[in-house]
Specification:
alpha+beta; D-amino Acid Aminotransferase, Chain A, domain 1; D-amino Acid Aminotransferase, Chain A, domain 2; 2 domains; nine-stranded mixed beta sheet; six-stranded antiparallel beta sheet; 7 helices; 28% helix; binds N-(5'-phosphopyridoxyl)-D-alanine
Length: 290
């Protein structure tokens, strides 16, 4: 496994950032995770747009053009030389006063971290995973909006810790209104009588790029996906469930709090969406534009 980190345009095996960077001091940073398919970083337009939206949500300016960010990404991927790459693009607020006010930080930093893409075990896809409904709530939209992908994931860290304690592979969080939202690093879907249901963006979730691609391919293939607000009790009617994320892709969820969802196996709708997403990814890997 080769890891390469690009910091200030210099590529090395590691990088060191000042402890006075507000990204370190306050989690005042934004980031994206991208993976490659056939060496091509996928869905770059969507990821770069979200990176800029996240930065705007924190009133942080990104002074680099998309082209120059992509150039740094491609240089770093090439230098790492892995078959397929995991790419983390981080923009921090930069160095400033030892004070929460970001106006003292005038130079944001761009960090591109590339390492070998390690897919999740095949068994997660063949058998599905167990997800726990946790007591930690997703941040409400009038705190740090979950639609902003910041470097402060502490709420999700706490949710993950709770799901670890419950022996589950991930945590499903509710919002403060008691509606389903998402998992710690993925979006959530469930299937009732052949219809796919997923929490709407209004519930306070990250607008996942994988979620977007899935909604698009579902529409192109005549599969109904309903976005809305659902209490956790609606999961008792679920025949299937799955989560989506850049690294996980489409992963079946076959157990909730250790109890089977449907027959406890990845179901036909989930399998179809896994296949449709894989095809979209394969197609993406043929282009270089993103
Ligand atoms: N996480 N929800 C949350 C809270 C996430 O952190 C992520 C992504 C997603 C899925 O978004 P996407 O499909 O764009 O990957 C949903 C990335 C993979 C991470 O932080 O590692």
């Amino acid at each position: 496994m080769t890891t390469r980190i690009n910091f200030k345009g210099e590529i090395g095996q590691d990088a060191f950032i000042s402890v006075l960077d507000h990204g370190f001091l306050f989690g005042d940073s934004v980031y994206e995770v991208v993976v490659t398919q056939n060496g091509v970083p996928c869905f770059m337009k969507g990821h770069l747009k979200r990176l800029r939206n996240s930065a705007a949500g924190l009133t942080m300016e990104i002074p680099w053009s998309d082209e120059s960010i992509v150039e740094q990404i491609m240089r770093t991927i090439k230098d790492a030389g892995n078959a397929e790459s995991y790419v983390r693009i981080i923009v921090t607020r930069g160095v400033g006063e030892l004070d929460i006010d970001p106006t003292s930080c005038s130079n944001p930093e761009l960090i591109v971290l590339v390492t070998e893409l390690k897919p999740y075990p095949l068994s997660s896809y063949e058998k599905g995973i167990n997800v726990a409904l946790v007591s930690v709530k997703r941040n409400s939209r009038d705190t740090v909006n979950p639609g902003i992908k910041t470097g402060n994931y502490l709420n999700n860290v706490l949710a993950k810790v709770e799901s670890n304690r419950m022996g589950a592979q991930d945590a499903l969080m509710l919002n403060h209104q008691g509606h389903l939202t998402e998992c710690t690093t993925s979006n959530f879907f469930f299937v009732v009588e052949g219809r796919i249901l997923t929490p709407s963006l209004d519930c306070g979730i990250l607008a996942g790029i994988t979620r977007d691609v899935l909604l698009q391919v579902a529409q192109e293939n005549g599969v109904l996906v309903e976005q809305g607000e659902w209490p956790p009790e609606s999961l008792s009617k679920a025949d299937e469930a799955f989560i989506t994320g850049t690294v996980k892709k489409v992963m079946p969820v076959t157990h909730l709090d250790g109890r089977s969802i449907g027959n406890g196996q990845p179901g036909p709708v989930t399998r179809r969406m896994m296949r449709l997403y894989d095809e979209a990814l394969e197609e993406e890997g043929k282009s270089s534009s993103g």
